[in-house]
């Protein structure tokens, strides 16, 4: 929020200077338009890139000193995809974090139970995963988060402290809802764009390109080629000497409330 505060102070000072310069030198009208565009671009940048920690601090990347990465999957549990993801993680013996959509849980309770039994973490990814989530009022967002929280608790008996905002969009209202519900905001440092990947080969290349210490990888259970590349991805990560760890180990935070 400090970055947003500083940005507003900076632009407030800039508009005062603009008023003065206009009074003294008669600036063209589009000077003000330019000011508006710059301000909107700066704020939009902060909304769409949660790694900037513009409205609140999100956990997106771990320590650069440890040769480890974490793998995360969004949007499950899904009957058609999640079991295959779990099978691969089990055979490769690596942990992951699953950010669950609340409405997907009913009918897939066994998948959530399996995630936990096999050592994976579960986090909240909202109940409805509404495309317009970030445009709702804070009250509605909070109710959505709580609804997902309740659903996760029904199945697992656990109250997760991890929340990943739908589409990774954070604005002042989303930030307030996350804080009010007392969640850690969890982001990523490597966006694989697996839901739109044109081929398995391209996805594998993109996922492994520039891999660094502390990276948090974003996959989706339903990514078209995600299951196809997952084993190769994990093996190559291991070949490069990285250890795959849980998010709570990466960031040293408790994943569940007691
Ligand atoms: Zn999602």
Keyphrases for this structure?
258 residues, alpha/beta, TIM Barrel, 9 helices, 10 strands, globular, binds zinc ion
Could you explain the architecture of this structure?
The chain is of the alpha/beta class and 258 residues long. The protein folds into two domains: 2-48; 68-253, Glycoside hydrolase/deacetylase (TIM Barrel). 46% of the residues lie in helices and 12% in strands. The strands form three sheets. Strands 1, 2, 3, 7, 8 and 9 form a six-stranded parallel β-sheet that branches. β7, α7 and β8 (216-220) form a beta-alpha-beta unit. α1 packs antiparallel against α2, α3 (82-92) runs parallel beside α8 (226-239) and α5 packs across α6. The radius of gyration is 21 Å and the shape is globular. 37% of the residues are buried. The model has no long low-confidence stretch (mean pLDDT 96). The structure holds zinc ion. Zinc ion is lined by residues 74-75, 125, 129, 166.
How much helical structure, as a percent, in the residues?
40-55%
Text of the CATH class of the largest domain:
Alpha Beta
Summed up, the helix count is 9
Shape: globular
Topology of helices and strands:
Elements: H1 2-25, H2 30-48, E1 68-74, H3 82-92, E2 97-100, H4 109-117, E3 121-124, H5 138-156, E4 159-160, E5 162-163, H6 172-180, E6 184-185, E7 190-191, H7 200-208, E8 216-220, H8 226-239, E9 243-244, H9 247-251, E10 256-257
Parallel strand pairs: 1-2, 1-8, 1-9, 2-3, 5-6, 7-8
Antiparallel strand pairs: 4-10
Helix pairs in contact: 1-2, 3-8, 5-6, 7-8
Bound molecules: zinc ion.
